[in-house]
Design a protein that fits this description.
The protein is mainly beta and 207 residues long. The chain has two helices and 18 strands. Helix content is 10%, strand content 35%. The strands form four sheets. It has an eight-stranded antiparallel β-sheet, with no helix packed on it. The longest helix is centred in the first third of the chain and has 13 residues, at 20-32.
Length: 207
């Protein structure tokens, strides 16, 4: 049977026998691989299109779009997806949010963190040079140590106003996913080293 177009759609020629149902089925099968496949969500895509041909395009109800990149496995790349929601970070005991609620969001392999914390009893954070702040969700655990410069209060004796924020991977001695702050800034007027509050806003990658 002859084909037309870049998609190679089968079209009966003048000499082909009158097998209309078979010809229509062949044409429909050829067109199907070039259509946008509508799915409810990722689970629906996996259940219904796991054996779809390579280069199948699927779109979910929220607009997320995927393109299948393998002819033998259920492998896809995400073309577009809605901005992920911010999720609340679980704070360590004795800490509370101040000004901005500690939250985390992940897009692909990139993770963003924001928020400011202080001690519930009014004492300084980092009195022993380091302190656990909280924990990120499991899907935000880094494979290598995530770290960045965090903001710190200037209350008390003169300080730089900067500390180090880290998110532990399984290569560290502390629990994976733990957010910690580290400071070597001077002694506060109350007699303890540390800061009154810490801003944990920063970014890291999970790979």
């Amino acid at each position: 049977m002859a084909t037309i177009g870049k998609a190679g759609l089968p079209v009966p020629g003048g000499g082909d026998g009158p097998t209309v149902p078979a010809h229509l089925a062949e044409l429909a099968s050829a067109i199907d691989g070039h259509l946008v496949q509508h799915v409810t969500d990722l689970a629906d895509r996996t259940a219904t299109l796991g054996d779809a041909p390579v280069q199948t395009l699927a779109v979910a109800r929220d607009g997320t779009a995927w393109l299948k990149t393998s002819a033998t496995t259920d492998t896809w790349v995400t073309i577009w997806e809605p901005d992920p929601a911010w999720r609340t970070i679980s704070l360590a005991a004795g800490l509370e949010s101040i000004t901005t609620t500690p939250r985390v969001t992940r897009e692909g392999r990139h993770v963003w963190v924001r928020g400011r914390v202080q001690k519930t009893n009014g004492t300084v954070i980092g009195a022993t040079s380091s302190e656990a702040i909280g924990t990120v969700p499991a899907d935000c655990y880094p494979k290598t140590l995530g770290q960045w410069a965090g903001g710190a209060s200037l209350t008390g004796d003169p300080m730089t106003g900067v500390c180090r924020i880290e998110v532990a991977s399984d290569q560290q001695s502390i629990t994976t996913g733990t957010i910690s702050m580290y400071t070597q800034d001077g002694i506060q007027s109350g007699g303890a080293m540390g800061v009154m509050w810490v801003d944990i806003a920063g970014h890291y990658t999970i790979d």
